[in-house]
Amino acid sequence: MSIQQQTSDFKDYFAKVADSYAAHRPHYPAALFSWLADMCRFRQQAWDCATGNGQAALALAAYFEQVLATDASASQIAAATAHPSILYRVAPADASGLKDASVDLITVAQALHWFNLDAFYTEVRRVLKQGGLLAVLSYGVFQVECCDSHKVQSLLDRFYNFTINEFWPAERRHVENGYAELAFPFPLLEVPDFTMEVSWGLDDLAGYLRSWSAVSRYQEYHGMDPVKPLLAELSTMWGSGKRRVIWPLTVKVGRME
Predict the structure, then answer these.
(1) Which residues of 55-83 are buried (b: 16+ CB within 10 A; e: fewer)?
(2) Between 20 and 30 A from 121 (CA), which of 86, 97, 113, 187?
(3) How far apart are CA 18 and CA 60, in angstroms?
(4) Per-residue pLDDT averaged across 199-227, rounded?
(5) Average of per-residue pLDDT across 134-142
(6) Sign of the torsion formed by the C-alpha atoms of 28, 51, 132 and 63
């Protein structure tokens, strides 16, 4: 894995859950990245900003000659998956290190709400080629389909809205409302509907919940794992099989003209 370092001052909410984040976060639909690539005029270079574990960067590597994947968290970059076409770099969102007008596509997956938007958009305008795309992706609170869906969802909603609610950063509200309140100063493209879903057993769900920064902070504050009692309540309703888990997916795409 090729990694370059650049440090900055920022709140690293995911340092303690980087490995869990890499192992248990759901994947964006492959059709989304195929569509983004088709909408690009060229496919020389993509920048996946706030790449986390490199999930979106890996998907982009199938379509672009080179992908720069940056994250301000060194822990996240250390947990990222190596690929010969991906250069990983520890860098803030507003200082990519890229040349002017050098990028065909910029993606930001589940991270725009953490940024200084004015500074980030200045960097976007600097590095995007004319006609290049900026795509921001975010998934909200998930829903589970199973035989006792209503009871299962009630327990999960209680966990999210009450058990760990005070440990979410304030920026989390932007994920919940689909980025409705965040500025996006680029002409929007019409985006097809994409579905984000997985088939998970209860252990998969547990891993995902433990990748949440709010769960990590709850455990640090209270000295106990809040997921364990939730699993005990869910186990009889969930059973040993896999269940369909669905997230509402927000995709905003703009073109640099």
Answers:
(1) bbbbbbbebbebbbbbbbbbbbbbbbeeb
(2) 86
(3) 21
(4) 95
(5) 94
(6) negative
| pTM recorded for the entire structure | 0.87
Domain carrying residue 29: 2-255
Question: Distance (Å, rounded) from C-alpha 54 to C-alpha 35?
Answer: 19
CB 39 within 8 A of CB 133: yes
Q: How many domains does the chain have?
A: 1
Residue 137's DSSP bridge partners are 109, 251
- pLDDT reading at 1 higher than 50: no
List own/partner pairs for 144-150 with CB under 8 A and 24 or more apart.
144/205, 144/243, 144/244, 144/245, 144/246, 145/243, 145/244, 145/245, 145/246, 146/237, 146/238, 146/239, 146/243, 146/244, 147/237, 147/239, 148/237
- Per-residue pLDDT for 205 more than 80? yes
pLDDT at 20: 53
User: Cα torsion for 91, 14, 27, 171, to the nearest 10°?
Assistant: -90
What is the b/e burial string over 146-167, where b = at least 16 CB atoms within 10 angstroms of the residue's CB? beeeeebbebbeebbeebbeeb
Alpha-carbon gap, residue 215 to 164, rounded angstroms: 6
Residue 208 has pLDDT above 80, yes or no: yes
Q: How far is the C-alpha of 227 from the C-alpha of 205, rounded, in Å?
A: 10
Give the pLDDT score at 24.
76
